[in-house]
Amino acid sequence: MSIHAHILATLALALCIAPASGAEQTGEQSSAPKRAEALKLALERLREQQNADGSWGKRHTYAVTGLACLAHLAAADEPFDPQRGPHRKALTRGIEYLLAQQKAGMFPKQGHTWIHGQGFATLALSEAYGRSLLCTRKPDLDLKRLRRVVQQAAIAITQHQSTSGGWWYTPGSPAQHEGSTTVFAVQALVSAANYGLQVDEKALERGFEYLKKCQNPDGGFDYKLGPGTVSMKEGTAAGVATLSLMKKFDYGVMIDGMKFLHTIGHDAISKERFPYYGHFYGCMGMKLFGEEMAAQEKTDAYIAAVHATLLGWQQRNGEWPQRGWMIQNGGEDGAYSTAFASLCLAIPDARLSIFNRRPPTLPESDSREENG
Predict the structure, then answer these.
(1) Burial call 118-138: b when 16+ CB within 10 Å, e when fewer
(2) Average pLDDT in the chain
(3) What number is the average pLDDT over the span 284-305?
């Protein structure tokens, strides 16, 4: 038996997954029309929810605007095509809002957090820049400025990495760190590197190592590195999704993480404090894991089940309602949940660079362009 075959056999035993039936294998394909219709309604709703200044959200506008822009980028092959009309305009206005808020790539802290806004805004701007390289229709934006801001934002993220290798909610906190804040930073850096910008590879590797050290014997991930915490459900999904972006796949860590997610099941995440966050990263991790392991028939079944749940939650007006912590604390409006759910539904279409194990092939002239 080859090493790869042995790994697959170990995976099947670890996850206790029987060979998928024909219906399970085609679950994502058969749900594609429903997903497309749901995404169409969602983008229309997001356009209605956009604020006058081009932002989305009410308290954490940098993070929610980043999510909404990513939802637009993930939903179309040509997101900047004039034929997309109001959706193209909404996306461009969102990007312009983010560009106007940063200073040398640094976004101000909103509420209790900086890294959520910095991470999602950087990721959105990076993916927007990358699509400008790959799409036929170019955005009506200053692309040199966009590239420069993404480069500066990636540097700012690296500069505020903790000594542990993780990141904290606020900048200038070298002794503090936490897992969910670390995933936002790492994913933004991966996206920037995917599109040819200079990223400190050592900082990125330290971020990956921090997350791996947070894994418990049961395969789940701690809230933060150190004693006294237990495995999180949504946090494990985020850790698995982020570690799936490592160039060198860590099979042991990933198999244990996947086993944990399959053991708790996606319904458990639906009942947690941040179900949209958990479902998004759970599906992202499954997609990337299946791609690496050539086991899509197994991971697609999980993704299809989550998508069925999300489709059942969507309201007639295209919005997804707040659930969990957001209801209890009034943290955000429906743009947050709608953007997250939309991103989750768009994962199989793989239009964002972080939805793929391999970075995109860039035009030669752009890959040689100087950073800055």
Answers:
(1) bbbbbbbbbbbbbbbbebebe
(2) 90
(3) 93
Q: What's the number of CA atoms in the CB half-sphere (13 Å) around residue 200?
A: 17
Return the H-helix or E-strand segment holding 319: none
> How far, in Å, CA of 140 to CA of 176, rounded?
40
Distance CA(131)–CA(129), nearest Å, equals 5
Q: Which domains does the chain have, with CATH numbers?
A: 3-367 (1.50.10.20)
In angstroms, rounded to a whole number, what is the distance separating the alpha carbons of residues 23 and 28?
10
Helices (H), ranges, 143-200:
143-159, 179-194
* Position 211 pLDDT exceeds 50: yes
CA distance 136 to 99: 23
Name the amino acid, one letter, at 44: E
Stretch 288-305: mean pLDDT = 92
Q: What pLDDT is recorded for position 22? A: 39
The alpha carbon of 197 is separated from its chain's Cα centroid by a whole number of angstroms, namely 19
